Amino acid sequence: MRVLALHLPNWPIQRLLAARPELRGRPVALYAESPRRGERVVAMSDVAQRRGVRAGMPLAEADSLNGLEMANPPRSIPVACGSGFNEAIRFLRHDPPADRAALTQLALFCERFSPLVASDDSQGEPCDLLLDVTGLGRLFQSEENLVRLVSETMAQGAANPDGYPVIARLAIADTVGAAWALARFSQALRSNQQITRPAKDAILLPPGREHLRRLLAPLPVAGLRIAEETVTLLHELGVTRIGELLKLPRRSLAARFGEQLPRRIAQLLGEDEECLEAIRPPTEFFAEHDFEHPATRPDAIAAALEDMMTRLAKLLEKKGQGATRLVTRIRCGDAGRDIHVGLFQPTARADHWFELTNMQLARMRLPAAVTSLSVEATLTAELCERQVELFGQSSRDHPRRLAELVDRLSSRLGREAVTRPVFRHDAQPERACDLEPLAGNLAATHSSGKGVRRFFRKTSGGKNNVKGPKKEPDLGRPRALPGWLNPSVRPLRILEDPAPLTVIAIAPHGPPMQFSFHNRHYRVAEYWGPERIETGWWRGRSLRRDYYRVQTDRGARFWIFRRLCDRTWFLQGVFE
After folding, report:
1. Contact at 8 Å (CB) between 23 and 90?
2. Cα(512)–Cα(526) distance, rounded to whole angstroms?
3. By CB neighbour count within 10 A (0-12 exposed, 13-18 middle, 19+ buried), where does 310 fall?
4. Is 415 helix (H, G, I), strand (E, B) or coil?
5. I need a surface site. Which of 54, 113, 376, 496 has the fewest CB within 10 A?
6. Distance between CA atoms of 524 and 503, rounded to whole angstroms?
7. Could you read off the pLDDT of 59-103 as tens digits, one per residue?
């Protein structure tokens, strides 16, 4: 595992300055009210910090700095600060929900670098992002280039709409704890040949967890993501560095400092695996219903479900979207059940959703009374708009009826039972075709409307009256198949797992003359080949095969190959 940690120092101020350009270069401080300590400062800009504002300072004391002149004003004021030293300090209330929302947007932006982006809130308000970059270094030529690209993207302000830069400290390591600690306290490390610094405020540790204990020893104990009280207690005992803490017996730490400290040490060194929970965008198409009293009557549950789907359908219609996958969650106290419905075509018809969902609900046994219901459209696509005709609607209803049939079959038999063949770009024949579900599939969603219209235009001669900027070509005319898909070159029946054969050949690399399959002997009368097929480098170890199309003396035709690594023969397919 390789983890990229992004530490965003002073994130509340960064978020505020990005959202309000008029505050940039001005003395700004954020305060929050504590139940016991009153209103206190929680964050401040660099200009306010130079004016004497500190975190944890009472608001009244910080406000009194506005009437004081600076004892030692700086000789040179940074250009970014403008005239902030001559202005009164502005105090604004801290807004944690806005900080979390901005961090979520930044996490979604970082999905261009990693498919899994998580946040860390072990120190209260989250100000760190954790990216799983396992195996992604080669996509960017190296991990150094990846770190450099992320650093430059943040510094150039690409993550903000107005181009305001994001200040971030980056680190890559084998564990979540090590990357988190390095992103915050890398300045405590000594120069080492094994440590790479691809960019400013960025550090990269080499792969291998055996180096972590030695390389992370100079870091402060605060890098373990432990409570502030534990850090203070360790300092009182004279333990300030991770290396000093690792010398203590692990068994006695839990009794003295609690279970958190030994667990964080194990996570730092990779002895205890730690999972990342990806940040997902907020659900846009969602409806829920909470029962005042737990419901047991099926008609009450069905009525609430139908009402939610009606509301959700109206919401989708306003956006011009249709659902292709629905998830209905039924909460029964502490337990719950989920109903997944996949749709062949995007639709915003609540009655159709309810029919498919109720079909599964009728066969489900609930563990207890229902306390709440929710419906979410997890996959949507643009609705297909059709021109309304006064006459001749019967032929136009055929695609819709086919889509409804596919939806009902998928709901009754299961989504994986109603499939279609899809070609894959793979040189290995048994992997060149796959079966994917017709209902609730994103690829099928984009092509389902066209596919249904094409099917019925071929069979019934109906016209295509779908509105859109692009005019579809006439697909009624037959097209020539690609050479590799020609039935005379490739068999229509291909074995999912090639079957081994016993083959007699004249030479080790020569064509087959006779082979045995299922205790039956076949003599080759004619053959075509060999045809060399190899897999790509990205698949790992390459497959190299020589294929032959053979015809026996009885007229049967087979597609067989010889595996070049060990010269073993296999049957791949049978020609009809």
Report:
1. yes
2. 10
3. middle
4. helix
5. 496
6. 10
7. 888 888 876 544 444 433 343 344 455 678 888 888 888 888 888
Please give, one letter per residue, the 3-state secondary structure of 83-118.
Answer: CHHHCCCEEEECCHHHHHHHHHHHHHHHHHCCCCEE
Return the beta strands (E) in 220-274 as ranges.
none
Could you give the CA distance from residue 573 to residue 499 in angstroms, rounded to a whole number? 9
Query: Tell me: the pLDDT tens digits for 58-71?
Result: 888 888 887 654 44
Which residues are within 8 A (CB) of 204 and not within 5 positions of it... i.e. 6 or more apart? Answer: 143, 144, 147, 171, 172, 195, 196, 197, 198
Contact residues for 424 (Cβ-Cβ < 8 A; gap 6+): 431, 432, 433, 434
Two structure tokens written together for 305: 């479900």
- Please state, in angstroms and rounded to a whole number, the distance separating the CA atoms of residues 190 and 150: 24
The answer, yes or no, to whether the previous bond of 198 is cis (omega within 30 of 0) is no
Tokens standing for residue 212? 């972590």
Pair of tokens at residue 76: 């040179």
The CA-based angle 115-376-374, given to 5 degrees, is 130
CA distance 375 to 239: 53
Domain spans in the chain, listed from the N-terminal domain onward? 3-204, 287-392, 490-574
What's the half-sphere exposure (Cβ side, CA atoms, 13 Å) at 495?
Answer: 13
* Contacts (Cβ under 8 Å, ≥6 apart) of 260: 226, 227, 230
- Per-residue pLDDT tens digits for 333-391: 777 888 888 887 888 889 888 988 888 888 888 888 999 999 998 888 888 666 555 55
